Amino acid sequence: MSPICTEWSSHKAALSAVRIAVFVEEQAVPLALEFDGLDAKAVHWLVLDNQQRPIGCARMLSDGHFGRMAVLQANRKQGVGRLIMLAAIEHARQARRRHVFLHAQLTARAFYQGLGFKCYGEEFMDADMPHIAMRLAL
User: Fold this and answer.
1) Inside any domain, residue 84
2) Does residue 116 form part of some domain?
3) Dihedral angle at the C-alpha atoms of 32, 18, 69, 126, nearest 10 degrees?
4) What is the distance, to the nearest Å, from the Cα of residue 98 to the centroid of all Cα atoms in its chain?
5) Whole-Å CA distances, 114 to 85, 109, 118, 119
6) What 3-state class would DSSP assign to 23?
7) How far is residue 73's CA from residue 56's CA, in Å, rounded to a whole number?
8) Where are the alpha helices (DSSP H) in 8-124?
9) Cα gap 126→102, rounded to integer Å
10) Could you list the residue range(s) of the whole structural domain that residue 88 is in?
11) Residue 135 lies in a domain
12) Residue 65 covered by a domain
């Protein structure tokens, strides 16, 4: 299982399916907030299971803002998110980025810290969930 680096136009249905399941259905994020119009301009990662079903995804905007990381509930704690993050970090390094940043749900802070991300700024609310800004120097 390795992440596919892709574009929105190539895998829109699969990427959307994971994000709707995780963010809209599980976490009650409004559909209008989840799909912000930036997907067509982003680089995306998609993970498929052995039956070629989408189970995880994420995106990175041109400014190094990583986000929309989602792994289906049944597939969590199996390293899928870590695989996505390592692929995204390598992509940023190859693009000669100095850093990448993200807005982590507080429940995911330790996950990102384990990858070397550092918190900065104050906690804030996004989609009615507490978040913290995090950054990784490359």
Assistant:
1) yes
2) no
3) 30
4) 19
5) 11, 9, 10, 12
6) helix
7) 10
8) 8-19, 31-34, 80-94, 109-113
9) 12
10) 4-97
11) no
12) yes
76 vs 70: CA distance, rounded Å: 9
What pLDDT, on a 0 to 100 scale, did the predictor assign at position 108? 96
The set of long-range contacts for 104-107, using a CB threshold of 8 Å and a minimum separation of 24, is 104/131, 104/132, 104/133, 104/134, 105/129, 105/130, 105/131, 106/130, 106/131, 106/132
Average pLDDT, stretch 37-63?
97
Which tokens sit at 111?
């996950």
Q: Band of the pLDDT at 1, cuts 50, 70, 90?
A: confident
> In percent, how much of the chain has pLDDT > 90?
97
Task: Please report, for the domain that includes residue 43, its CATH number.
Answer: 3.40.630.30
* All residues at 6 or more sequence positions from 12 whose CB lies less than 8 Å from its CB, including other chains: 39
Instruction: Quote the pTM value.
Output: 0.95
Three-point CA angle 101, 136, 22, nearest 5°: 50
pLDDT class for 90, splitting at 50, 70, 90? very high
Q: How confident is the model over 5-24, as a mean pLDDT?
A: 97
**In 3-state terms, what secondary structure has residue 96?**
coil
Q: How many domains does the chain have?
A: 1
